[in-house]
Amino acid sequence: MEASVKFTVQFIRLLALIKKIPKIIDNNDRHLILIKREIEIMKKIPYPFITDFYEVLENEDSIFIVMEYVSNGTIRNTLNESGPFSEESASIIFAQIILVLKHLQFTCNVAHRDLKTDNILFDAKGNIRVIDFGLSSTKSQTEFLRTQCGTPSYASPEMILGERYGYSCDIWSSGIVLYEMVTGHLPFEDANLSKLAQKIVFQEVEYPNNLSLGLVDLLSKLLTKDQTKRITLPEIMRHPWLKDNIKYVEEKLNSFRIDKNQIKSKLISLGLSDSESNEDHESVAYHVLKCEYQLSNFDSLNVESGCMSQRQMPLQKISILPKLCVLGNHMILRGSTSRNKTKLALICTGKRRPTQAQLIQL
């Protein structure tokens, strides 16, 4: 059985991705431990360059994870279609990746552990979204991990050797991603996993002559095999090849502001009273609408300007407490059951995402 099925739901201005995961695969439910861990981690790590988590639904057979749909494919897709990135483009993209790692490490105490070009998507403006936190782990700044996981070509030497490791594994993987972006290929490749592991642990990286000295210097520090000597996140952010774009991206993010009056007007337009629209604005754009409803014999979700596409989602007897997350007129969902018995008005996006018009344009 397929481990997950993805649907897209059309909203007024955005798409949401609904990932359907069977509770039983091959007669066991061991995968649910990873799924539940991924959900818990995604709830605690909202950030503009991480795909948004909206809601999790559940019935007897499946779990449905509702998240942001990101439209422009992965870094790997772009490499396959267009070849290597210029250093200028790669620098802006890599600045966003490093700011994600900074957020995960210093704000959330999370190690991603599977950073790769397949797990970094582009939105319509060319900004990134990091996805797939199924192998992520929470840890303190002083704890170490030992689990061997992730994709072999991006795994750090210490992970391959079974040594204790920390956030440095993500720094190594980011170096592999940057190398792949500017060259179009991986620094270590072999169809034989044992030989691949030997190359990662012992073989030195070869750098094409067309790369600038500054980029080669940063790559060599990211791909230092001894994790105790590998460059740290603060040092990466100060590196001459990257620091200007780190500053640029941070300034763009810090300049974003939310109009609370616009949020209030949108809530009222959806039928909430003036007093209800004032609730919970201490957390800026979050408002929790206590709207519990039953979905029975649910065939499809009728939505303004769109409907369920690709496949129908069979949900039965689900009771949910949806979140009403508001940012201007962004992402409004008005839905009903097929028999028009229960209606739902939902705005999703919230304080953690600038509108697409306000996101950084490359």
UniProtKB/TrEMBL annotation:
Active site residues of this protein: 114 (proton acceptor)
Coiled coil: none
Enzyme Commission no: 2.7.11.1
SUPFAM superfamilies linked: Protein kinase-like (PK-like)
Span of domain Protein kinase: 1-242
Catalytic reactions of this protein: L-seryl-[protein] + ATP = O-phospho-L-seryl-[protein] + ADP + H(+); L-threonyl-[protein] + ATP = O-phospho-L-threonyl-[protein] + ADP + H(+)
Keyword Transferase (UniProt): yes
Binding, ATP: 132
Keywords, in A-Z order: ATP-binding, Kinase, Nucleotide-binding, Serine/threonine-protein kinase, Transferase
Listed PROSITE patterns: PROTEIN_KINASE_DOM (PS50011), PROTEIN_KINASE_ST (PS00108)
An example molecular function term from Gene Ontology annotations: protein serine/threonine kinase activity
Cross-link Glycyl lysine isopeptide (Lys-Gly) (interchain with G-Cter in SUMO2), sequence positions: 116
Name of this chain's protein: non-specific serine/threonine protein kinase
Annotated organism of origin: Trichomonas vaginalis (strain ATCC PRA-98 / G3)
